[in-house]
């Protein structure tokens, strides 16, 4: 096995935690340095992301470059020896880790292909099914992911050790209470940055901001690693909380902090762009869109261009986004129906398609507030009263719908 691949083993455990929670250290991987990133200016807001002096991490760009090298090394090793299970596990982990930050659909597809091969190569190995459960969950194949987790248990895996993966699936499918129970137990057993960040993010989603703030503080205090990945993910999750709470100034500061820790962090950059003036947003988004295969980033770029007065470029980008969403829905319907529906409800200007896609998502068991919101707004816009009434009843069955969604549902059948 190549030296680069052997060295990448230090990242394998980190990446295995990727989909359900954050990441552990990759200190010592080839090329890693202890030199912190450039200093982040300290805000006058008492609630702010930690500076490099307060929470030093290694250079996120170098760390991401290391992952690129390790993926190339692992891929080459597998082409030479296709039945090397340990190498396959490493490659799946690294592809998933890179996908977490770059949001490249191609990495998710590659990870899933290798995970299927891993099961073929090692059909009696519990870890093969757990690896495939992770890639299936990333593509929103939640029922199949649970089947793989259960299969791993029959082969000797610990169900308790799968708590984070199972919690992520419950959360993604709308069982927030079930997910929280697992998150609380996991954080109590292992009060580290990954577990505490996951718990904080879920508590924030439930609207319990004050409690989430304390959990994020505990997550930061618990960090004993030097890699930038878990810190960037923590800052991103806290930014989402502040944006949801309406504090866009704090949200922007935390998105910026996440982006500065890991400049390849596509979602941190795009969320930050939404809160920036159009010119700055375009500057942030253009490099991402040049290599992105997820249309979400091009959609946000088009919105920024429209706001900047460049309607011709924006319209071309919107047309490209519509085409790409159609492609992704055809290939990975479970993963992209809800995103496509949101686009077609707005700039995509096809409310019937938005409603149909949302109804399909609900029918497959992904009953979450965001999907119902898109579906209801599309049904109301279309005057589809029967659909609106049915959807309104579905909202009543959600565990924690927002007051706004409840109000929309209440008026849907009038």
Radius of gyration: 21 Å
Instruction: Calculate the terminal CA-CA distance, rounded to whole Å.
Output: 67 Å
CATH topology description of the domain at 332-414:
Serine Threonine Protein Phosphatase 5, Tetratricopeptide repeat
Low-confidence stretches: 1-14, 21-42
**Helix count, DSSP H or I runs of 4 or more residues:** 22
Number of strands: 0
Q: Largest sheet, if any?
A: none
Order of helices and strands: HHHHHHHHHHHHHHHHHHHHHH
Portion of residues in beta strands equals: under 5%
Q: What is the CATH architecture assignment of the domain at 332-414?
A: Alpha Horseshoe
How does this model look, in words?
This protein has 414 residues and is mostly helical. It has a domain at 332-414: Serine Threonine Protein Phosphatase 5, Tetratricopeptide repeat. The protein is 71% helix and 0% strand. The protein contains 22 helices and no strands. The termini are far apart. Mean pLDDT is 90; it is low at 1-14 and 21-42.
What's the SSE blueprint?
Blueprint: H1 3-7, H2 9-16, H3 60-80, H4 85-102, H5 105-121, H6 126-138, H7 142-154, H8 163-172, H9 176-189, H10 193-205, H11 209-222, H12 229-244, H13 248-261, H14 266-274, H15 278-291, H16 295-307, H17 311-331, H18 333-345, H19 351-363, H20 369-382, H21 385-396, H22 403-412
Write a short abstract of this structure.
The protein is mainly alpha-helical and 414 residues long. It has helices at 3-7, 9-16, 60-80, 85-102, 105-121, 126-138, 142-154, 163-172, 176-189, 193-205, 209-222, 229-244, 248-261, 266-274, 278-291, 295-307, 311-331, 333-345, 351-363, 369-382, 385-396, 403-412.
